[in-house]
């Protein structure tokens, strides 16, 4: 019985996520209400509140889940492969492309702690983990690199006809390679 409930919960959350995505494509996030979401998802208002406090909580949970997915992808690389800038970028681009609709909608929300900022944090953490010694300059360089990568991927994901994913990965790698210490650049 618990498995059936889990499936129902997963289905409900998926419906809510899809509903919020569609609504965010139609209007500003700040104007979206719980009523809008439950109508769009065709579910009961009480069901919504069984999982989320409000639409902000729903958006936050979606973002957090996506960030956890991406962290998991990076962690999965570590045991079996050498973590390189190109490999991390490829995985990032694959993930963004697979989730293009929700990512595009989330990027449009200008929240101070929004999806773009969270993704910058993940890339920054990944960069710092690759450094054997971490200086203050390394921390600033990691932020600089992460901000550039996320800025470029945001532009790519929101374009109506973006360049091919492999070209985007190559472009970002080409731009960042001179900025990455030689020990890391050799791994690219």
UniProtKB/TrEMBL annotation:
UniProt entry tagged with the keyword DNA-binding: yes
Pfam short name (any one): TetR_N
Record-level Gene Ontology MF annotations: DNA binding
Domain HTH tetR-type, residue spans: 10-70
Protein name: TetR/AcrR family transcriptional regulator
Organism domain of life: Bacteria
Spans through the membrane: none
Ranges annotated as DNA-binding: 33-52
Source species of the chain: Agathobaculum butyriciproducens
Record has Aminoacyl-tRNA synthetase as a keyword: no
InterPro entries documented for this protein: Homeodomain-like_sf (IPR009057), HTH-type_Tx_Regulator (IPR050624), HTH_TetR (IPR001647), TetR_C_Firmicutes (IPR039532)
Coiled coil: none
UniProt KW keywords: DNA-binding
